[in-house]
Amino acid sequence: MSTTTTAPSRGARAAAGTADYLDQRTGIGTAVKEFARKIFPDHWSFLLGEIALYSFITLLISGVFLTMFFVPSMNEVHYEGPWPELHGAEMSEAFASTLRLSFEVSGGLLMRQIHHWAALIFVAAIVTHMMRVFFTGAFRKPREVNWVVGFVLLILSLAAGFSGYSLPDDVLSGNGLRITDGVVRSIPIVGSYLSYFLFGGEFPGHDVIPRLFTVHILLVPGLILALIALHLFLVVLHKHTQYPGSGRTNANVVGYPLFPIYVAKAGGYFFIVFGIIALMGATMSINPVWNYGPYDPSPVSAGAQPDWYMLFLEGSLRLMPGAGTEIVIGGENGFTLSLNVLIPAVVIPGILFMALALYPFIEAAVTGDKREHHVLDRPRNRPFRTAFGVSVLTAFFVLVLAGSNDLIATHFQLSINDITWVFRILFFVGPWAAFVITKRICLALQRKDRELVLHGHETGQIVRFASGEYIEVHKPLDEHERWLRVQHDAHRPLEIEPAEDSRGVRRKGYRRDKLRQRISRIFYEDRVEPVTPAELASAHSHGDHDSLGSVHQEHAAISGADVPAGDPAPTGGGSRLVAPVDQTVDDARKK
């Protein structure tokens, strides 16, 4: 039997030669081989971070185009372009170049709108991605640093959005800069100096647009790129988290290799995200600056709202009362402390953001848990964390709605004063109510899980015994579903040593331990223990009811339920049950 070989084509030889050249000089082959074999779990929620990444790439592509035509100058010119309503109007070169981009440059308006929509989706994807990480506990050891990196990326995305939003120098963005000036000036001691530095003198000055342009196209994107690279490096270093299920442990990753499956998926998903953003830019008008006109410090119109990610700050300012909130320190010629600006624009956002940034470290300190976690939590199994996250989101949504109180009043013909008071009350009552309700829901879902594990799913089938007794037949859970509902650890409040030792000497560090114990009670005093093997064995011992046949025969097939009678329930609840082996584990690469 003869065999024939086909000589490689010229392109194949060139590619092989190039790869060999680079590998011998950089060792890139080893890195590519290791990275290509990396296993990633398959779940739709992991795509939220990819949406943020692809939106940022879209921002870079469209931003390069816009940079070629935008003029970051506040020099005054008279407009003589194709938009008739502004003929002869005095405006800055920045606003005039924005109009030229919109009406005279081929594809300019499309690129402007793609850029703006991509910015909105970029911030939204980061926020949603962080919500997924928070509620599933993906920030736990060893990923606390990566959580901080993601938090800084969120702050930088807000800075990028605000700096870009302010560049056209129209009435809407100019009003936003005036608010920024007031917020900066409200900062004690250094506020006026920061304002002079930012605006190059008294507001509005002549330097703010060029400086914002440098921040927007150079400083912030550079930092974002560096942090995205660090974020992805840490994801690869720590391996990817995965949702709980049979076969998934902290020692493995169940999924598919990066190459070729996820490379193909990622490439296709980028074009989907880019296509949707391009479609939105082509069909949905956004930020029509020609309707607002060039910036003039004198007019401030109603119905003017910033982009959605800055609405919480606008709403906070609108809810704060003005009367009696200014304090003069040091007599008539002293320093004026503007609490009506400082509290809503600096203190409240600072508290919300710092709570978000420090939460992983607070939870780790409260639980005393120093283990590595690669399997995610079900939100219902961490009631306090889930309730806390929902309460923070509730406060955020109240502030967002308050930022549009004038539009709500005009659209629904309501009193703006009544709406403002309703939002003031909701800002304090809403997060508390959301916390209580969410925590109760989580505990109820945990109790439902216990009931399902112990008794199975209701079938609606009623059986009558010879004795006249009626029962409903329950369908037992299969081993995979049972494991999903019992595999978590039930954290308990910390137990500390007594205040005094055996000799009556007060123990050093007792006050610190006592404080940790009190906080841990807030976190874990209300809890539902997962089903233990002893409880499961007891629940499935039905005596005469076992004569029902195959349904109850399945009850006897309990993984790890052979606990001797009379033994106490083991600590850790359902984690003592043996995890079933999933067929997909055969495809998992052990780390």
UniProtKB/TrEMBL annotation:
Catalytic activity: a quinol + 2 Fe(III)-[cytochrome c](out) = a quinone + 2 Fe(II)-[cytochrome c](out) + 2 H(+)(out)
Main subcellular localisation: membrane
Subcellular location: Cell membrane
The EC number(s) this enzyme carries: 7.1.1.8
GO biological process terms held by the UniProt record: respiratory electron transport chain
PANTHER family: CYTOCHROME B
Protein's name according to its UniProt entry: Cytochrome bc1 complex cytochrome b subunit
Species name: Cellulomonas shaoxiangyii
